[in-house]
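Long-time lurker. I teach an intro course on protein structure, and each term I like to show students one example going from raw sequence to a predicted 3D structure in token notation. This year I'd like something fresh instead of my usual example. Would anyone be willing to generate the tokens for the chain below so I can use it in lecture? Attribution to the forum is fine with me.
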Amino acid sequence: MSSLTNEWQLETGENSTKYIIYIDNFDKKIKTFSTGRKISSKSFKLCNSSFQVLIYPGGESSHYDQYVSVCLKNRSKWQVKAKTSFSVLNKNIAKSVSEQYFESEGLKNTQGVTKFLPHVRCKRNDLLTNGVLAVEVDVELLQENILDNTELIAKDATEKLQCLEKTVHVQTGEIKQLQEYIEGMESRTHTQTNVLKNMIRDLTMSLPQNTLNNTPKTSVTLECPVCLEVAGPPMRLKQCGQGHILCDSCHARTEELNEDDQVGCPGLGLCPTCRQNITGRPTQLERILGLV
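-- Reply from a regular --
Happy to contribute to a lecture. Here you go:
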């Protein structure tokens, strides 16, 4: 039941019914409802068909803005033929609509009276009882062109397909907008990449050439201070306490000369650089030079 109305239905025959709608404060609604704004009843059944009453306090259109308009709407999924009468309860006002076909959808699924009540009579001392308008609608159903299940299923499928096509159309537009956005992003990214490449190229060209070519080289070369031979395999080394080196062969020769009693040369067997005693091998240095 609508929050704006109180509604009652009374069956008057096998294929006829009386539907009564009570609308409170109707004189105020005439002033506040714009033209075309309607009050809708709840749907009611008659045989297999469904109907709904529409009431326009400000008139159905601008041509009838000084009248209250009423109509009956077919809510069924098939065509019906009916005869309708609209009246005000306990008042000497009644207007009928001749036998007509109601389509299942579109503008032709409603039939009514555009000049049902003039606004000048919608007053509490005239057609309104304590501000309440009571509208009676008598409907006689003459024919129902009921669709079979196959037709109903086909119609529902068509409606769903139309709804799906509309959804696809909307989503296609959204996808197109997204593609355009992505293409714009890719274009901006490409431009930014080119700018960065140009900046790197300009920076590279501004650097001194020797800065780019000078790559540090880590190489160690040592010579024996006695024979001046560059240290390399299979040479072995000796060192003194100060870290000075000489090759193993030169050290061995000085040792042999020192052991010969006929040669009395002081300093043989000592470090040729600082004249201190030879203490052993520089093992770590030999590993670095690849001698061991």
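Some talking points for your students: The chain has a mean pLDDT of 86. The two ends are 105 Å apart (CA to CA).
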